[in-house]
Specification:
The complex is a heterodimer of chains A (85) and B (265).
Chain A: H1 13-29, H2 34-52, H3 57-82
Helix pairs in contact in A: 2-3
Chain B: H1 2-40, H2 42-70, H3 73-99, H4 108-120, H5 130-157, H6 161-182, H7 191-214, H8 224-243, H9 247-254
Helix pairs in contact in B: 1-2, 1-4, 1-5, 1-6, 1-7, 2-5, 3-5, 3-7, 3-8, 5-6, 7-8
Classes of the chains: A mainly alpha (85), B mainly alpha (265).
Chain lengths: 85, 265
């Protein structure tokens, strides 16, 4: 018979530090609002694509704040629908 | 003349953003330190606080100049702008939800009472107290890490790390002095309004720098930052008003043809 509860090997200080570092950045950037992280990446990516076209570049200075404001609005309304997390 | 004006407007917004961010986090840290000091003795609580501030300062000194030296400016602006954008949106979202009453406000009194209850459970000895030291250190260090990120990101992209560090140090001194004077009345600090202000500035800096990083040409250069603060401020205000309970009924009452459906009292 084998032991059904194998002992968990104690983690060394380095892996604990790496895990804590990763946890900090996860909480810092994503936390309970992953839509803000994903949305910000998409918004900046879209504006980068707009800036490739020199004719459309002039609109980027207007487009970026509008998209960011829209992202904030949609996240806040999402929170309202979920009962303000 | 224009260059001087733009440099000053950017520097002022930078200093205000760092000062407010640091002040908000310091209020939260101070709540913990005051709870530790008043229940287990001030000596170890203040030692834990001082060591945490030293470690945080060392992080800024070690990381800030290295980032400026080794990371290309375009990459720095894009990455830092993205970081500030995400971080600022989180702060602003929380502040909007609190201002509109959809989320409970940060209650320093409740946090203070909880810490006092936890720390009173075990007896404090004379002299140095390891528990008081560790709790004060952790409180200040963890709250301060966010400030370190704000100081480094804003300071390096603006090429004014010294001003950002100075603004953070000023906030520590001011909040520390006010905290010493009012002691347990930290709940009277308008924390949500400060958080709203910081969120607006972080999102504005984030928009500006990430835009610069991908090739956006801002009209007026650095002067676009205060304009962005104003635009986002209006947007946040509109969100708060529209989210307040009863606002939908009030709006529908103003619309023609809404009939008697606006009976919200």
């Amino acid at each position: 018979m084998t032991d059904p509860t194998p002992a968990v090997a104690p983690r060394n200080p380095v892996s604990r530090m790496v895990a804590a570092f990763g946890r900090f950045w996860w909480e810092f950037l994503i936390g309970d609002t992953p839509e803000l992280f994903v949305g910000a990446v998409l918004v900046v990516g879209l504006v980068a694509l707009v800036c490739v076209d020199h004719g459309a570049r002039a609109w980027a200075a207007v487009l970026l704040p509008v998209l960011v404001a829209g992202l904030l609005g949609s996240s806040v309304w999402r929170a309202k629908r979920r009962g303000a997390s | 003349m224009i260059a001087t004006t733009t440099v000053h407007s950017g520097s002022i917004v930078l200093a205000v953003a760092v000062f407010l961010a640091c002040a908000v986090e310091m209020v939260e840290a101070l709540t913990i330190v005051v709870a530790v000091g008043s229940t287990r003795g001030w000596r170890s609580a203040l030692e834990g606080t001082a060591v945490a501030l030293l470690v945080l300062g060392a992080l800024v000194v070690a990381l800030g100049p290295a980032i400026v030296r080794y990371v290309p400016l375009g990459t720095l602006r894009l990455v830092v702008g993205g970081l500030l954008l995400v971080f600022g949106l989180q702060w602003l979202r929380k502040a909007v939800l609190r201002a509109s009453g959809l989320k409970a406000k940060h209650d320093e009194d409740a946090i203070f009472a909880r810490h006092v209850e936890e720390l009173s459970g075990t007896g404090a000895g004379r002299g140095r107290d390891a528990t008081a030291f560790v709790v004060a250190f952790k409180g200040v260090f963890l709250e301060g890490l966010e400030v370190v990120v704000v100081v480094i990101t804003l300071g390096t992209t603006s090429h004014d790390l010294g001003l950002a560090a100075l603004a953070a140090a000023a906030a520590i001194v001011v909040v520390g002095a006010v905290g010493a004077a009012v002691a347990r009345q930290l709940s009277s600090v308008p924390e949500n309004a400060m958080k709203m202000g910081v969120g607006l500035m972080l999102v504005s800096f984030g928009t500006f720098w990430s835009g610069e990083g991908v090739g956006v040409h801002w009209p007026g250069s650095d002067l676009a930052i205060p304009v962005l603060v104003g635009v986002y401020g209006l947007g946040a205000w509109a969100l708060v008003v529209s989210l307040r309970p009863g606002s939908a009924a009030k709006i529908s009452a103003l619309l023609p043809g809404a009939g008697g459906s606006a009976n919200h009292d």
